[in-house]
Amino acid sequence: EEEIPINDNKTEYATTLDNMPYEDFISEVENEILTEERDKTNNNINYLENWLKKIKERKDIFLPQIKSEERKLCAQIFFKLEEVVLKNLIENRKGDRSEEFMIGDAEWQQEIIFLVNRLKDKPDELKAFWAEYDALFDIEEDAKDGNIYKAGILAALALQNILTDKYGLEVNYPKPVEDVKYSIDIVAYNELRKIIFLIQVKTDKTLIEEIIKRDLNTKRHKTETEKKLIKTIPRFEFGDDKIEMHKDYKDFSRGCSKYVEKNRELFKSNNGYTTKGVYIYVPYVINGDKHINLDGTPDEKVWEILVAENLESELDLPKKYNYDNLFKKK
């Protein structure tokens, strides 16, 4: 089995990794990940699992040589990107998705969210990060999955930024295992109205455009089993299968019920708060145009669409959007 080279002068190397220009640092990470080229025509499970083991070994040797927590997180994300690609290939061959894989996947996406939040005031570094993200997925001939992951990550960040910047809510992310088991991407707190929101974020481009087009038709009757851009579920309905609603909402409702039960002490300590589940589609691409920046800040169009779909009334938020502008556009 191939021996993985270990740098003898770790102190000197660590200083270089921490202090070199950011793009050079990212190149060093890429070189370490791509030390040896994988045979992409070989989808044998044993071969893929051995390659996954090699990537993890390289990661475990490389990361301790970085002192900067921010750069260490960046490097870890790129190593894990390779792991995600390999695990996808392995589990596709096996024909199922293990819970362990899904939790690791959710943890990796959260790490990207945390890094993007830290790099907001460093646009050059953020641009370099996303360029390498795209490059690694391209090298792995997996750009489609890379774009799907990116859309989900930026949609969560966009909603986070709308809730915090426009309405002053506090936003937290649940543990990855809770994300997977209970389908909750974000937990938001409205201190003013004393409401806790358990939120699942979706980014289905085709469905979002269909809903927007459908809702412009004010004469059309909507049924409870149809999808909405924003669906709120009060706590007393959590897990109640008798309530008429779309199957996806019922699954989410059950997840909310289990999350509250699992975190019973947390909800007890928030006496006086009501809890709502929020199943929300955040527009990332509309008619071919991207509306969320690489730092997760959405342009005005995203906020406008969500407000037009009753964001403020559904979440009992103060009216911050200029409705005169909204009605003029309609």
Molecular structure report:
The protein is α+β, with helices and mostly antiparallel strands and 330 residues long. Helix content is 57%, strand content 10%. A five-stranded mixed β-sheet has the order 1-2-3-5-4. A two-stranded antiparallel sheet has the order 6-7. β6 and β7 form a beta hairpin. The protein starts with 9 loop residues before the first helix and ends with a helix.
Structural class: alpha+beta
What is the CA-atom radius of gyration, in angstroms? 22 Å
Order of helices and strands: HHHHHHHEHEEHEHHEEEHHH
Q: What's the tally of helices? A: 14
Low-pLDDT runs: 1-8
What share of residues is helical?
Answer: 55-70%
Sheet with the most strands, sense and barrel status: 5 strands, mixed
State the total count of DSSP E strands.
7
In short:
With 330 residues, the protein is an alpha+beta fold.
Which helices and strands occur, and which strands form pairs?
Blueprint: H1 10-19, H2 22-33, H3 45-62, H4 69-94, H5 99-118, H6 123-139, H7 143-166, E1 170-172, H8 176-182, E2 186-190, E3 195-202, H9 205-216, E4 230-234, H10 247-262, H11 264-269, E5 274-281, E6 285-286, E7 289-290, H12 300-308, H13 311-314, H14 323-329
Parallel strand pairs: 3-5
Antiparallel strand pairs: 1-2, 2-3, 4-5, 6-7
Helix pairs in contact: 2-4, 2-6, 3-4, 4-5, 4-6, 5-7, 5-8, 6-7
